[in-house]
Amino acid sequence: DHKVEPISTADYYRLYGIFASSRYPFSGSELPGFSAGESVLLVSPTGWAQLPVEHRRGIEGLRATIARTLANHPAQDDLDRKRQRLAKDVKRYQEVRGRGEFDVALRTSIDDQDIRIREEVSRLDNSVRKLWDDLKGTERLAGLERAYAMREAEPRDAHVQVAGDPFDPGPLVRRGVPLRLAGGQQLEIPDGQSGRLELARWLTSPDNPLTPRVAVNYIWQFHFGKGIVSTSDDFGLGGSAPTHPELLDWLARQFIDNGWSVKHMHRLILSSKTWRLSSVSRQKSLAIDPTNLWYWRFDRRRRDAESIRDGVMQAAATLKLERPGPHPFPPESNWKYSQHGPFKAVYESSHRSVYLMTQRLQRHPFLTLFDGPDTSRPTPRRKNTAKALQALYLRNSPFIHQQAQSLSRHLIAVEPDRRQRVRRAIQRAWSREPMAGEVDGVLAYIDQYARKWQQDSEKRSGGASQLVLEYRFDGDAKDSSGKKRHGSLVGDPTFIAGHNGQCVSLDGDGDYVDSGAILDLGDAFAVECWVRPGPTQAVYADIFGNHLGRGSRGFVLQQKGTATNQFTGSFGVGGEAWVISDPIVLAAGKWQHVAMVRTPSKLQLFVDGKLGAEVASAAAVRPSELSFRVGLGITLLKRCFRGDIDDLRVFRGVPDRYRSRMTPRQIELAAWSSYSRLLLTANEFLYVD
Fold it and tell me: Could you give the CA distance from residue 63 to residue 549 in angstroms, rounded to a whole number?
């Protein structure tokens, strides 16, 4: 018998008999290659009768083949002999126990025989696995599915197992419920049935003294953070007594009288004065009732994980209220015994959290972070923690940023007036009207954010540009920028018809143009020109640059090794380190416009006005003492460029055509998204107060 509760040994076996008379599939029976007989075919008699004849015949034929194969299997005779021997030994063992004695060797032999019989049954099942798989395939062709569910087995009352030994039976106990809870009326279980249906009806009967009280206590606990019975999973003598027993009884009666409606109980509690109390503390009341036993105020607490997730999406107008379709499970052929695959821990979903897939071995990261239920065990009462990781998530997670953007887009779309937009935002997120001066404060924040964003955008794109060098190559290498950085021709470059007037033609054998100028362009600059590459190039040929390998200084537009006419941009950051982009591919014999653009945050290569390659880096460009050169970017003559170059320009800063400035619409959206993020992560949103 139970040490504390008024539950006898016989009471346990009353319930045990019901479940021992039921059949349920073993864990993993849904995997491919396992018996389809362990799961339940989802079809009613009417639905079965409406199936096409060929489908019914195919399914019935395979069922008959499975039954015939099992019945005629050679192992059946051996299995019968083992069962007969076990039955004799069990009978002999029970006679020994009846005399008050114990035979260790005999008891060990019985366990061993029982294991061998189970192994034999498993081998029999293995012999028809291919047939079971064919049967499941035929059922699917007929549009039928199977479910992992319980069903009726051979009904029987259970014997008390003396000292827990299944082979040492005590008195036979009729199936039913604990006498203390039965109220003098035990279950009437019809012949041939397990009793599960009768147990379910008893659990939900208005006469059941326990179920409605437990249910309303959980609902009360959900809203107040504590139940009327604080041990919500233990209403017995080992648990706590109800603080307000009359209230608990009244709520239980309300629950029953209103059709066991959970929605009615939510409305009843939420409309009560108790729930609508303020959480403001008063010193006098706090001294009298520090634990708030008598509900003189509301206990402030954070919303549960599901409410936070659903509330964020509801406010952002992204929550889908309809019931979703099936989970995107991988193909059944990929299912294995593994907690690592093939199922993901998270399936992206915009539906309510109640529809999220629950996994036993992998918890949803968001629900776990905000104290969601442990899916591997009962969670009668959740924790309500406040951790730094929660704050970091709310500040940095892509989910929150996406929802904030969605909310800001919604607000901008539905409300053109900015003041009314703030009012609508506060109503939507915090369910109240703005306080005095609150709208003005919000608009001041949004305007300040937009100005700062505009300034940062200017900085990120490199700021205004200034032309510092320009070679048109119309018969000479004079600088037309006004800076008088006229170039010197090295080798024997020639001037021929170019893209715009004349151009400089370089033979790749010592030809280049030296500006003679040491250019320290900082961390925002652009170099552009028209170029017509030759069919072959030297290894690491340079179109332009001023880089020095020792100490990693300067910048260069350089061929990627022996990859003919594939050019990468790079700049030195010191310490023998370089920031190098992916290559752009230039066509030989064709004029193309190329530009190397450096902003404080990235290096970009453009071909004919389109971005061809990009690498992010906030590292500072280390200036070079080498003069800027065209057709060569280093001191090694063997790396001279072969081809034609026209209209080369160097800018300090970045010209508008290469700057990815944010539009006024984008800046407005960014500012309202920032405010929306504040709305969705503020305590006023996260806490019930």
Answer: 78
Q: Quick: pLDDT tens for 392-413.
A: 999 999 999 999 999 999 999 9
- The end-to-end CA distance of the chain, in Å, is 46
Task: Tell me the per-residue pLDDT of 562-621, one tens digit each, with 9 for 90 and over.
Answer: 999 999 999 999 888 999 999 999 999 999 999 999 998 899 999 999 999 999 998 999
Cα gap 52→71, rounded to integer Å: 29
Which residues are within 8 A (CB) of 535 and not within 5 positions of it... i.e. 6 or more apart?
564, 588, 589
Q: Which residues, in sequence order, are CB contacts of 452 under 8 Å at separation 6+?
A: none
List, by residue range, all CATH 2.60.120.200 domains of the chain: 466-658
- 3-state SS of 305-358? HHHHHHHHHHHCCCCECCCCCCCCCCCHHHCCCCCCCCCCCCCCCCECHHHCCC
In sequence order, which residues have a C-beta less than 8 Å from that of residue 178 and are 6 or more positions away?
Answer: 7, 8, 11, 14, 15
Whether 249 contacts 213, CB under 8 Å = yes
Please confirm whether the linkage preceding 45 is cis (ω < 30° from 0).
Answer: no
Its pTM stands at 0.73
Specify whether the CB–CB gap between 572 and 622 falls below 8 A: yes
For residue 438, give every residue at least 6 positions away whose Cβ sits within 8 Å of its Cβ, in sequence order, or none: 422, 426
In this predicted model, what pLDDT tens digit does every residue of 654-681 receive, in sequence order? 998 888 777 889 899 999 999 999 999 9
Is the distance from CB of 233 to CB of 223 less than 8 angstroms? no
- The pLDDT of 437-461, averaged and rounded, is 88
Helix (H, G, I), strand (E, B) or coil at 629: strand
Q: How confident is the model at residue 336 (pLDDT cuts 50, 70, 90)?
A: low
What token pair was written down for 479? Answer: 């600088």
How far, CA to CA in Å, does 76 sit from each of 35, 64, 69, 435? 18, 17, 10, 82
Determine if residue 552 is left, alpha or beta; phi over 0 gives left, psi from -120 to 50 gives alpha, anything else beta: left
> Based on the number of CB atoms within 10 Å of its own CB, is 282 exposed (0-12), middle (13-18) or buried (19 or more)?
exposed
What CATH architecture applies to the domain 466-658?
Answer: Sandwich (2.60)
Residue with tokens 């030989």: 588
- Is the predicted pLDDT of residue 556 greater than 80, yes or no? yes
Q: β-pairing, 525-533 with 22-23?
A: unpaired
CA distance 14 to 186: 10
Answer whether residue 337 shows pLDDT above 70.
no
Check residue 283 and give left, alpha or beta (phi > 0: left; psi -120 to 50: alpha): alpha
The residue with tokens 């419920």 is: 177
Q: For 382, what's the count of Cα atoms within 13 Å in the CB-facing half-sphere?
A: 24
Which residue has tokens 């010209």? 655
Residue 26, SS3 per DSSP: coil
CB atoms within 10 A of CB 133: 15
